[in-house]
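fyi for ur records
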Amino acid sequence: MEIQQDKCSKVVLLNDQYNYKIHNHVENNFSICNKKVKKLKNHNQFFLFFFRFKQLFYNLKKYYEFSNENIFNYIPLTFHIKNGIDDLEWIKFIQYYNEIQDDKKQQNIWIIKPGEQTNRGNGIQVLQKLSDIQEIIYQNKYHENGRKKTYLIQKYIEKPFLFNKRKFDIRCYLLITTYNGLIKGYWYQEGYLRTSSKEFNLKNLENKFVHLTNDAIQKKSEEFGKFEIGNKLSFNEFQRYLDFLGQNKQFNFIKKTQQEMKVIFLQKIKIKKKKKIACDIVKSVYKKIQPNKSQFSFELFGLDFMIDSNFKTWLIEANSNPCLQTNCLLLSRIITNLLDNTFKIAVDPLFPPLNIPKSKNYLIPLNAYESNKFELIFDDQNDGKKLAGFECESIFLFSIYHWFFKQS
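which gave:
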């Protein structure tokens, strides 16, 4: 198996030695039918547009309108400002901001994210004063390619559920495969918590070590790794923390929660909510993937969630290029198994391992799920039919234009 680089994808796997012809077989989670496979891409350039948070916001918004749901039950209230102070969304934001100021039941804290070219926490600010937010919007800046910069203004979660008085988010994984024109989405059953280095408070909004939990920010703190190795926490460690809190009667949320609900808090209730959101993400981009779905490809995405003090789960970010570094023992175990499980589902059925006899290749898809932590949450053959009436604004032509623009 040879690994080559091309312009359209990060890695292309070529198999010129065998030129495999995948035999007919249909299994509940697989359907690959007599196709000669020479190339499998692990990075699809079209996904880049669908999984930027700005575009994902619009995809989810349209999907939830289609399914008669409110998107802001799943992500914090968001305004996308595309045309500066003349934008209708900016006017709506000003109105909402003033309503909160008058009501005074919550603090008027917002997180400002660049609409484009953002990664690893770059350009993200937590602000409260309207004048500070206006200063950003009024700048009217442009990218080097001449396109106007846009901004996402999102309601800051002012009362997050805390771990030992510190903020955290939860990194989860979503795998999407496209085989023979069929799209499948898989939820990975293990993830981890990313903790902050400073105790949570709303007095100093400029301190990113308090408010932003991604590694690119936290590793610059002098207290990085002081409380948890690499500022990482496993699901089991978090569950033990919840169990410990359950023994202390001063925590109000325990009084409102049945003992059995406390025990399954992480494993059942919140994971179920996250899986629903992950499945909704696949559904929201399903029609847009279709123009290019005939190629064999797969991609792994990182989804970041937060839990507030009322145990409500929020999607706060989606990453088309999640960090796979293994800078601590916990990540070494999780990431290694994650990649192994990914290859079992996405690669092995098309490019069988050399230690497996050709006569046994047909068994690979059937065995792919043995001890595999990926769970099928979207199946084109079943779920795709339910989306027949879902029509969304296509950015396919824009994607083509943007891709060629980058190559020139």
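Confidence is low (pLDDT under 50) at residues 1-35, 248-271, 393-408. thats all i got for now
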